[in-house]
Structure formats: structure tokens, C-alpha cells
Design a protein that fits this description.
70% helix, 20 helices
Amino acid sequence: MLFNSIDFLLFFPLVTAAYFLLPHRVRWVWLLLASYYFYMCWNAKYALLMALSTLITYASGLLIHRAGERQGLKKLWVFLSFASNLAILFFFKYFDFFLDNLSVLLALGGVALKRPGFDVVLPVGISFYTFQALSYTVDVYRGEVGPERNPFRYALFVSFFPQLVAGPIERSKNLLGQLYERHDFDPDRVRAGLLLMLWGMFEKIVVADRLAMLVDHVYDNYAGLPGAAIVLATVFFAVQIYSDFAGYSHIAIGAAQVMGFTLMENFRQPYLSKSVAEFWRRWHISLSTWFRDYLYIPLGGSRRGMGRKYVNTMIVFLASGLWHGANWSFVIWGGLNGAYQVMGEALAPLRERACRVLRIHRDRPFWKLVRTVFTFCLVDFAWLFFRAQSFSQARGMLVHAVRNAQLSALPGQLLSLKLDGPNFLLSLACVGVLLAAGLLRERHGPLRPYITRQALPVRWAFYLCGVLAVLVFGLYGPGYDARAFAYFQF
């Protein structure tokens, strides 16, 4: 079930109304049933995989706790929990990728690999709920949370429908405790949550889906277009992927807030970052902090010298790239972002010295703008590998963009790139709205409290304008079918 579908517009109000009408002691049962129904609307049989991951990590939490001070036994249960969950993830997400690359390697030695005759379908959200469940195992091992005794309440932690299929990837120490709290109906909280959901719908349906039309057209037909069109489409993709994924996160956080739950922030104006390291403190925060807490720090972090720190950084970002998809283009995307950070930190002394010699004050507005634009260019270049279907396509697009830039030809073909004049201008206006909202939030903090404090007529003017913007300017896909969120494939 998609957030931007008619089904969800019926499902969410019914679930929320029943949640507040039911006695507190059974509300969590209702949410568990609703969450599994939400997931099973996509593919009912794959709910068994989520249940299996839930059972494994639930049992591991109990076994780790019972092991007491026996560190060897505790580590064994952690290892088995990770090994079994990652084996499931590997089979469904990476098995074909592994066989493809193994076939290539064996072919170099003259050996032909006979492929198994079955096709594996990637379950929606498997990377998200697997990482959320595994974080619980580590948190219990570290003593940061106690083991959850109720297997069904723990199942709700893993399957909580607002953030089930695309995050945020919650921590047990944040969400598990909230499942025991009593959440009464609070009009102010509900209003704030609905406003955030409306903003997420605007980001997805009005902005992301409109930009996707041009991006998809250019990436599918780049060989017959001027190279400048590839540059334009890649810039548009940076906005599209942000609007799509941040839109999902905002709807998820807002939906949870309506029911009284607080989920972690997942995006914080990432394109206003002045370095790639800062970008990754603002982009997909739940995943970047997951890798920091459960991979980077266990590897040693920065505690074992700069060389080891650089190696650990590259391991994290290569793993992050592979987490996003079973394709070398994702690995390269992750490697680029890791290399940016390693090079940025290694060159920091040289950069500071150059600024002193040239008397450049990096904190002045002009140089902040220069740093922000430069960071966006680096990040956007890496996005090309993320969006391309394969490394060979990304390489072909780069070669075509350099050899056939044809800047003068772009204006004449601009309105033939799937967006007509009004939609192209509307796309630019939407980008402007996102930029303005980001700048205002950067300077003044969240805008929702400001809106909800206004007088009733002013508040309703905001609400009605937002609803009308989604209804009038939103795109609902061919035949008015909802377009899936981009991160559902991960």
C-alpha cells in the first residue's frame, strides 16, 4: 500500500480512529494487525519473511540477556542473529548479483556457470526492517535496552506501518518504550502531524513525480539528446530523489505523530551543506547514524589513527552503496561519497593554509555559498551513478555528456524532454519553494509551530492552499495510479 494512494487515504483515518477509540491495553494489538495488513497489501507471503526476522531477533535478545556475563556466548548469539538475517537479505537482494559476478569470474578461466532456474523477487522494505531488527540485537548486547518479553509487541516494533518499508530506521531505545505509553487524542499534535503529512504529499506528488518525468525520459534516451540534457536531468534528479524520499519520511513521521509516536528526523536541509561530511549528517540520518553506530564505531572509528579512520570511512560508504542495491553503480556511488570525505579531511590542512595565504574568510556569506554550491556539484555527480541502471550506462552518459555537450542545442529541445512549458515552469517554481522552505527552516527552525500558532483563518488558508496545491498540481501516474516511492526498491 502506497502513502500516495486512495487505499491509504481510507486506511489511515480508519486505523487512527479505531486506535483512539479502543481501550489502551489493546491498542498495540490493533496497530500490529494494521501494520501486517499494510505490508501484506503488497505481497502477503513475504510477511512471513518479516515474521521470521522478527522471531530470530526477538529470540536473540532473550538469549543474549540470559547469557549474563558470559561474553563469548553473548557474541555468539549476536553473530547468529546477524548471520541468519543477513543470509535472508543476501538471498533475496544480492543472490543474482553474486551469481552474475561469479559467472564473469569463472568465464575468465573458461568455466561456464549453470545458473539455478528460479527468479527471486525483492521484498519491499527488507533492507529497512532487517536493519531495524538487527539494531535491537546490538542494543540488547550493549545493555542499552532490556530484552522485550512480549514477542507480539516486539513484532509491532519491527513492523510499525508508518516507517515499515522506507524508514526512518528506528532504534529500539526510542520506539519500543513508546509502544507502552498511553497516547490520548491531542488536537494540536494531530494538526501538526497532518500538516507534515501534507508537506510530504506535496514533495512526492507535486515535485518528485513531476521531475521524474524529465529525468526518466533523459536517462532512457540520453544517446539521442545533447549532453547538456544529461546535466540538467541529473540536477533535477538530485531534487527528485530528495523530494521523493524526504516526502516519504515526512508522511511517515507525521502519521506516527498523529497517533502520538515520535520518530527520528531523517532529513535536515541536506543540499544546504557546506561539505560532503555535513551532507551525510543531514541526509538519510537514520541510515547514516545506523552505519556509524553499528559498523563504523565497532570497526574502531577514528580511535586507531587517521589511516584506519579513512579505511573505516570507505568500508562504511561502500557498504552503504551496496545496501542501496545489488549493482556496481551503487557501490561506486557509495565509494565516491566516501572518497570525497577522505580527501576532504586529508586536504583540510592544505585548504586552511591556502585560505590564510589568500585571506579567504570561509565563514563569510559569499564563501559559504561557494562551498555549498561546490558540495552540491560533488554530490550531484555521484547521483548520476545512483540513478543509472548500471555502471556501463553511467559511463556511457558521462562520455556522451563530455563529447556532445551541445549547450546551444538544449534551449531548443528543453520543452521536448517530457515536460511542456507550463510543467517545466511549475517544476522550477517547486524547486524554488523547496529552497525557500529549507532556507527558512535553516534560519528560523521548524515552520510547523509557526503555522499552527497563527489565527484560525490564517491557519486554514495555509491548509487549504496546501491541499489545493496537491490536488491541482499533483501527478498521480498513468491512469491515476500512484507512483511508487523511489526507496521502495531498496
